[in-house]
């Protein structure tokens, strides 16, 4: 395919850079609601519980939009979905700053903005990366995780500064303008769905691939057939555990540590250290994901993360907290990238978008449940062990399930079907 290489540079890495930047913006905005929370509640006269409900349903809408985005990508292409999502973000932002009632703000900020960001989320960008990369697919997808972590780390202080300097309405409109100015050119001039025939394979790998086509993934595999196999549900359960644990720590991690005797600054530094380490660890995990069995890496990620939740419940000194946070940060962002790469390995690249979107919905369901369980469990039983112990146990179960995922070369005939 002409224009895919310039010297030793592969054009697919341009698409990776564009996708990472878009992920930084979308995830940073969707997960960076915190700076908006109190200014919106004050300005519109909403109670915290009312606004929390709007945000929680928005998170679910964000998750529900992802399989729709994957389906639209499969039918109409990545460029169409990115431009549609951008238009929805702009419309919803204008509506949100002019909304005065709870119902209007719920529909604009809670529902419509979440759908727009879902259409421009990593789920919409995963299919194009899986098409362009075979040899370095794990590394390419890990950059999306890096974008997610950087989005949370960068967008939160940027949005906070903008809101304090101007107003939440001005900040939201400013985000829409910047988002459009970045997304539209990238969608039109960088994102290309049509990848070269042999992607990023070396000549030796191309030759080996040609001689072993009998083990290739059948491209005729349908979405319905894929959802009737165990690997899809194994990955979905793992993403449920991922969402359950990540959102629990983000929402209730600081209160839990403060209830255990740590001051607010120490607690925030402990939680922040996880995200900081995760930015750099994704690059290391991305490199080894293309040389070691991915299911082993995914199982290890869930195992260490599960043990980390138990560790956070028993740490008693500053150095113990920071050590547990640093170790947890190493595996904090890898599960999403590994899950999407494994889906592509197992089912091929044609339907990976809609499959990943449906599996990622499990992530958002887990996030919603843990948000509720963290508060309810503490108020009912007077301990954080209910929620954090559940997170640790679910992650350990996800580790056991992930290690049993099939390796590359899995075919539909060999797929263990779900029981009827």
| Major beta sheet, strand line-up | 1-2
Q: What is the quaternary state of this protein?
A: single chain
What is the count of DSSP helices, taking H or I runs of 4+ residues? 17
Poorly predicted regions are 214-218, 409-416
Overall body shape: globular
- How does the major sheet shape up? 2 strands, antiparallel
Element-by-element helix/strand order:
EEHHHHHHHHHHHHHHHHH
For the terminal residues, how far apart are their CA atoms?
A: 45 Å
**What percent strand?**
under 5%
Helix content: over 70%
Count of DSSP strands: 2
Mean of all residue-level pLDDT scores: 84
Q: Cα-atom Rg, whole angstroms? A: 21 Å
Look at the helices and sheets and give the structural class.
Answer: mainly alpha
Describe the fold and architecture.
By secondary structure, the chain is an all-alpha fold. The protein has helices at residues 12-30, 34-44, 48-76, 78-97, 102-119, 122-132, 137-165, 168-189, 203-211, 223-226, 230-259, 264-288, 294-314, 318-330, 334-347, 352-381, 385-402, and strands at 5-6, 9-10. The protein has a two-stranded antiparallel ribbon with strand order 1-2. Mean pLDDT is 84; it is low at 214-218 and 409-416.
């Amino acid at each position: 395919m002409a224009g895919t290489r310039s010297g030793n540079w592969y054009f697919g890495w341009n698409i990776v850079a564009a996708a990472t930047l878009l992920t930084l913006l979308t995830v940073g905005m969707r997960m960076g609601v915190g700076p908006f929370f109190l200014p919106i509640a004050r300005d519109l006269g909403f109670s915290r519980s009312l606004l929390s409900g709007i945000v929680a349903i928005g998170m679910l809408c964000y998750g529900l939009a992802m399989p729709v985005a994957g389906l639209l990508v499969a039918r109409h292409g990545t460029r169409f979905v990115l431009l549609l999502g951008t238009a929805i973000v702009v419309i919803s932002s204008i509506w949100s700053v002019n909304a005065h009632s709870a119902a209007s703000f719920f529909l604009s900020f809670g529902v419509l903005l979440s759908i727009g960001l879902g259409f421009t989320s990593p789920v919409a960008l995963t299919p194009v990366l899986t098409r362009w990369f075979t040899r370095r697919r794990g590394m390419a997808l890990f950059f999306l995780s890096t974008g997610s972590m950087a989005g949370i780390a960068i967008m939160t202080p940027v949005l906070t500064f903008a809101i304090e300097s101007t107003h939440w309405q001005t900040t939201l409109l400013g985000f829409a303008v910047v988002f459009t100015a970045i997304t539209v050119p990238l969608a039109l001039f960088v994102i290309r769905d049509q990848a070269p025939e042999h992607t990023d394979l070396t000549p030796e790998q191309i030759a080996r691939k040609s001689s072993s086509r009998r083990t290739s993934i059948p491209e005729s595999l349908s979405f319905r057939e894929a959802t009737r196999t165990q690997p899809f549900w194994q990955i979905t359960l793992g993403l449920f555990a991922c969402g359950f644990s990540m959102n629990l720590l983000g929402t209730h991690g600081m209160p839990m540590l403060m209830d255990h005797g740590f001051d607010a600054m120490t607690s925030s530094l402990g939680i922040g250290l996880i995200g900081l380490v995760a930015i750099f660890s994704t690059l290391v995990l991305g490199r080894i994901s293309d040389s070691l069995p991915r299911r082993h890496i995914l199982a290890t990620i869930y195992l260490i993360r599960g043990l980390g939740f138990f560790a956070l419940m028993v740490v008693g000194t500053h150095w113990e907290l920071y050590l547990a946070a640093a170790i947890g940060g190493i595996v904090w962002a890898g599960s999403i990238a590994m899950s999407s790469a494994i889906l592509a390995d197992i089912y091929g690249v044609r339907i990976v978008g809609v499959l990943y979107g449906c599996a990622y919905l499990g992530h958002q369901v887990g996030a919603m449940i843990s948000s509720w369980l963290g508060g309810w469990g503490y108020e009912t039983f007077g301990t954080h062990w209910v929620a954090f112990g559940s997170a640790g146990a679910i992650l350990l179960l996800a580790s056991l399930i992930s290690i049993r995922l099939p390796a590359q070369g899995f075919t539909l005939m060999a797929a263990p079907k779900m029981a009827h």
